[in-house]
Amino acid sequence: MCTAAPSLVPALDHLILLVNDPRTSSTQRSSALERAVLVFSELGFQVVRGGTHADGLTSNVLIVFPDGVYIEIIQFEPSPSPGSGESQHDFETRRKQHWWYHCRPGWIDWCLLDGISDGAIESINENASRLRQSALQELLNKKQDDQQERARVVAPRLLYQQPQQGGRITTRGDQIKWKVSFPSPRGPGDRLPVGNVRSHVPFWCADLTPRDLRVPLTYAHHNNHSPGIAEITLLYGNDTVTKYLDVSLALHQPIQPNTLPITNDFQLVPNEIPYRLLSTPVSAIHKPDANAATNITTSSHHEALQTNRFVRVIVKVAEDPEDRRWIEEHGEGLYEVAIYVAADKLPPSGPPDGIERTTFEAGFGRIRLSPVLH
Q1: Cα 190 from Cα 149, distance rounded (Å)
Q2: CATH superfamily, domain at 11-285+308-372
Q3: Which of 4, 251, 347, 353 could disulfide-link 120, Cβ–Cβ 3.0 to 4.6 Å?
Q4: What is the pLDDT averaged over residues 301-328?
Q5: Could you please report the per-residue DSSP string of 327-339?
C-alpha cells in the first residue's frame, strides 16, 4: 500500500474553460475555440493548439504558465471527424453521455496532478471514510442521548473512483495518454450519503506519457508576462459545510467541523471561511506541505507570488440574487479564476478590482486579472 503523507499539498494541474454550449454545438456556424484563441491572444496570452480528445467529442487549446499549471479551453465538436465513419446521430448520442454535456460555457472543472503514484487518492478516501464513520457514531450517540429522530451531523461525502484511461492526439500527431480519477457521483452510502457533483471537488490526472507532451512549457511565455494563477473561487449555495469539508480533504488540508464558523442551520458563515491552498507542478518538485502553507495563509497575493508555490482556493457562499442566478445557470463549484499579469500590461477591459469584460461578454466565464510587478 502506497499512502501519501497527509501533510503534502497537492499541485493544481489545470482548469477547464468551456467555450460553447454542448446542446447547440451541432449547429454552431463558427468555431468557438478559434474565437477564444483570438480573445485570449489579444489579452497577451500565448495560446497553443492542443488537439482532439480520443473520443472525438471535444478539442482544446491551452494557456500554459511557467509554474506548470495550464488553462484548458475546450469546445464540443459539431460533427464526427472525417473518415470516422460515424453518423451524426450516433455522434450526438455519444455527446449526450459525456460528463460535461450538462455544463454551460464558463469554468466547468478543475484538476489536480497525479494522485495515483503518490498515493494521494487512496489516502484521501481513507481519511473521508474515517470521518464518515466518526460522524455516524456521533449521530447514533445523539439519537440515543436526546431521543431525537432528526439529529444532524456534518460528514464528508468525498469518494474518488478507480482511475480510467484517457488521451488525445496533438496537432503534431503525438499520442498522449493519462489516467483520470473522478469523484463518485452522489448516491446512498452506509447510513450517510456519499458522492459529489462534478466540479464541486477536483478530479485528478496522472500522466502515462511524459507530461511535457501534454503541457508544453516551451509555450509558457506571454506578452502580458503572466506567471500563473493567483487564486480560484468556488461558489456554493447550500450544504456549504459538507462541501467545504470535501474540498479541504481533497486538498490534503482536512479540518474539523467544530472549528468552522457555522450557522444554526448548518451553513458556513459568509466572509469568515478560511481559504485553502494548492501548490503548482513546478513547485511540487520541492513537496511543499500544509505546515509551510499555514505560514502564508494571511499573506498578500504578492507575498504568495514571491514564493511561487501556492494558489489560493477561496470558498464563497451565495448570498445575493446574482450569485443564486449564477448557480441556477451554471451550477455550484468553480466560479471565478484570478490570473496574474504584469501591472503595466493590464488591459483597459480588466480593471484590477473587477471582472475582465471581454471574456465575460464572450461567455467565457468570470476572470480577474491581478496586477503584479515583474
Answers
A1: 17
A2: 2,3-Dihydroxybiphenyl 1,2-Dioxygenase, domain 1 (3.10.180.10)
A3: 4
A4: 78
A5: HHHH-SEEEEEEE
